[in-house]
Amino acid sequence: MMKISLDEINKYIENNIDDFHQKRLEKLEKLKLKVNLKRKNPYLFRAKNLLTSHDIVKKLLDAYLSSQEETIFGDFLEGLAIFINNKVFGGIKSGITGIDLEFIKNDIRYLVSIKSGPNWGNNSQITKMKQNFKTAKKTIRTNNPNLQVECINGCCYGKNKKPDRGEYYKICGQEFWEFISGIPNLYIDIIEPLGHNAKQKNDAFMKSYAKVINIFTQRFTDEFCTDGEINWQKLLEFNSSKEI
User: Fold this and answer.
1) Alpha carbon 189 to chain centroid distance?
2) C-alpha span between 215 and 217 (Å, rounded)
3) Please, what is the angle between helix 198-224 and helix 6-30, to 10°?
4) How far apart are alpha carbons 82 and 90 in whole angstroms?
5) What whole-number distance in Å separates Cα of residue 234 and Cα of residue 157?
6) Is the pTM higher than 0.85?
7) Burial level of 193, CB count in 10 A (0-12/13-18/19+)?
8) Buried b / exposed e across 155-165, counting CB within 10 Å, b at 16+?
């Protein structure tokens, strides 16, 4: 087991967090109003009494961005975890399907699937993860059938009171970061450097966000409003009619 300094961790975060901000900005700029309108439930908009173009556009945009940001930031945290583990335990980004990190600790080969938080998947997704673990263990043991292998679902935040899931272990939050680093309070140590240039980056993002809101609001009004009111029939026909 090697050691990693907080300075090394901070430097990695500061050098890579800009990618998160850049990617979320790129996602915003690539967003197409009509493409996303086709993916949303217009009945829900009506049931929530959304009466203005701005209200609908903002709901649409915020839902899209929330989903995209979770994915982008999840990728960042995965990269951070692999970087730290590599420095401490020599872990590597796995080439096995469904496995993000492989490393050896106390003579045990760990196969880790990294997720952002504990409530990340439905039953079919969890079943798929368990199948990936089963296949990965078989692959790893091809040349060494007696190798001790443990499968881990590691979650970057949250808590979990039942780590033993039979076919794998689920560890979250502080326990996950300590597991991959050996540093008990790493989960706290990484929060400060995540704010590197955050204000400047978010100020720039919000300018682009406001621009998209204004442009989409105008387009929605032109396309789906009649005499200043939302034309629900036209919106539904666009979203759901078999003839359009």
Assistant:
1) 21
2) 5
3) 20
4) 9
5) 43
6) yes
7) middle
8) bbeeebeeeee
Q: Does 199 score more than 90 pLDDT?
A: no
**Position 95, amino acid:** G
Tokens coding 230: 């939302």
Rounded to whole angstroms, the Cα distance separating 92 from 90 reads: 7
What is d(CA 147, CA 224) in angstroms, rounded to the nearest whole number? Answer: 63
Break the chain into its structural domains and give their ranges: 42-240
3-class secondary structure per residue, 107-144: CEEEEEEEECCCCCCCHHHHHHHHHHHHHHHHHHCCCC
149 SS3 class: strand
Tell me, rounded to whole angstroms, the distance of Cα 129 from its chain centroid.
16
The one-character DSSP state at 230 is E
Mean pLDDT of the chain: 92
